[in-house]
Design a protein that fits this description.
Strand order of the largest sheet: 14-17-20-21-22-23
Number of domains: 1
Distance between the termini: 37 Å
CATH topology: Methylamine Dehydrogenase, Chain H
Helix content: under 10%
Largest sheet: 6 strands, antiparallel
Structural class: mainly beta
Number of helices: 1
CATH architecture: 7 Propeller
Shape: globular
CATH class: Mainly Beta
CATH superfamily: YVTN repeat-like/Quinoprotein amine dehydrogenase
Radius of gyration: 20 Å
Length: 344
């Protein structure tokens, strides 16, 4: 009997500890005034005041005051481009890349008053998914298969010029394999400044590179078998990488996160997420991971081992400001949210 009572007490304490752990933060979502109702997928948080967003029909938005006011930036050239990728260096300097035809990259140095076309690919099959930088000068853009290999562009001068990495430096594509331009986050840069790209299709692989020139492939635990299934987003934090995704055509199915502790070389299954997730990010201030998709938002306090649903909001993308711990998020209908996290 003492053994049974002791066992019950152990389980009760374990459950209460787990519950307390999951309730150690209060997470709030405050909707901000958006000037439009178009799909937003690209996000780049510069600091607690400056945030850029991008999306369909040439949409580019910027706030200089943490979202109190969002400004609609004049689109470069034409308003038909789908700007799913954006990278901002500052309030004045930013890059946007279009998904689909024509494949174009533009750069501004004056807060969007004018834009320079810095890359163009007129191949109708060219499709760019995401932009990432490992420093102020060095960055990459990742795209789907074009010809005999995937399209990976590299810049060494802060995006003024771009060159394609040769197929000899890249893993051979699988029978069907692609990236996902769902949230501008299928590329992540680790704390060691290593690039990691997530893909899907036949299998869910990652491509990794220390500097963006030569790339290697490794397999994750996210599965595959469908062109719509795979890694939609990656995030890095505390020597760990977490990949999320699933299948956007099955948003309410559950999927396990995939976790790497060695810069993307090997992967293990993490906790179960409460649906397809197009975005994941890490807050170093709160030591908390947050993932979101079309059926809600999950967060993890144990580095991906378990996930708790915190909201039913439909979101495409989100990103933390690492200094303040605040985050911004956007949806397919142009809705914008500021996310605040406070300790209970």
């Amino acid at each position: 009997m003492r053994f049974i009572i002791g066992l019950l007490l152990f389980f009760l304490l374990a459950c209460s500890e787990k519950a307390a752990q999951r309730q150690s933060f209060k997470i709030s979502f405050t909707e901000q005034d958006s000037p439009l109702q178009l799909s937003l997928r690209g996000i780049s948080v510069v600091d607690s005041n400056v945030v850029w967003l991008s999306g369909t029909k040439g949409t580019i938005l910027r706030t200089l005051n943490g979202g109190t006011k969002w400004e609609l930036i004049q689109a470069p050239d034409q308003d038909s481009l789908d700007f799913r990728s954006i990278y901002a260096f500052s309030a004045q300097k930013a890059l946007v890349a279009s998904a689909g035809f024509p494949a174009r990259v533009y750069k501004t140095l004056n807060g969007g008053l004018s834009w320079e076309l810095v890359y163009e690919n007129l191949d109708s099959a060219a499709f760019m998914n995401s932009i990432a930088f490992r420093g102020p000068q060095q960055g990459v853009i990742f795209g789907d298969q074009l010809g005999d290999c995937h399209l990976i562009l590299q810049t060494l001068d802060a995006g003024n010029t771009w060159r394609r990495i040769s197929c000899e430096k890249l893993p051979k594509p699988l029978a069907y394999e692609n990236g996902f331009a769902a949230s501008n986050s299928c590329i992540v840069v680790t704390r060691q400044r290593r690039y990691v790209i997530g893909l899907g299709g036949l299998k869910s692989r990652v491509f990794t590179s220390p500097r963006g020139l030569a790339w290697q492939a490794s397999h994750t635990t996210l599965g595959g078998g469908l062109s719509s299934r795979g890694i939609y987003a990656l995030a890095a934090g505390r020597q760990r990488l977490i990949a999320v995704g699933g299948d956007y055509t099955k948003p309410d199915s559950t999927y396990q996160a995939s976790i790497s502790n060695d810069q993307g070389k090997t992967w293990q299954s993490g906790g179960v997420l409460n649906g397809y997730r197009s975005i994941v990010d890490y807050s170093s201030k709160h030591q908390l991971w947050m993932a979101a998709g079309t059926n809600g938002v999950d967060y993890s306090e144990d580095h991906g081992k378990s996930w708790e649903k915190v909201s039913q909001l439909e979101l495409n993308t989100l990103q933390f400001d690492q200094a303040s711990g605040s985050a911004w998020a956007a949806s397919s209908k142009g809705r914008i949210f500021r996310i605040e996290i406070k300790s209970n």
